[in-house]
Amino acid sequence: MNTPAHVIFAAAAFARPFDRRRTVAAVAGGLAPDLSLYVMVAVSLYLLGLDPGYVFGTLYFSDAWQQVFRIDNSVLVWGLGLVLAWWCGARNGMVFAASGLMHLALDLALHHDDGRPHFWPLTDWVFQSPISYWDRAHHAGVVGPIEMGVSAVLCGVLIWRFPSLRSRLLIAVLAGLELFPLFIWAFLFAT
Fold this sequence. Notes:
Elements: H1 3-14, H2 20-47, H3 52-57, H4 63-72, H5 75-88, H6 91-110, H7 140-161, H8 165-179, H9 181-190
Helix pairs in contact: 1-2, 1-6, 1-7, 1-8, 2-4, 2-6, 5-6, 7-8
């Protein structure tokens, strides 16, 4: 899934109006498993000036990058975080971890040849889903529009649930990021 969709799904599932800490925990948990990717891509593209094809075709699959992904995309690491938060009575920590686990479950189902080793440190095995959210050879022509449609509906629900103008503007920005990924990717690859 596109990262904005993960954030939208997590917010719809776990965020609560008038509970800012819980809402921030839900949004942060939905974003966290992809955060290292964004940081490494930004450094590679904008600080190091590397070609996007090299970044996404070579560096993404390199041992160094995959090691980072093993940690921040491990169901076991996130599950341990959930258990520790529960044990400590950290309700927002549980929301953060649950949002991260939701992100990983959706990634597991929607990545074909670019999946992550979700069961590290037990194994480096990567599940290759028969469907992909982005690869047209693996049904992205169907999955992508469904992802965008569900995200749009969830944004509508969030706008209805969150009455403040600031919240609604943030939700609208998320919706825009989710509904216009082709423009974002075109911009990245055009530079």
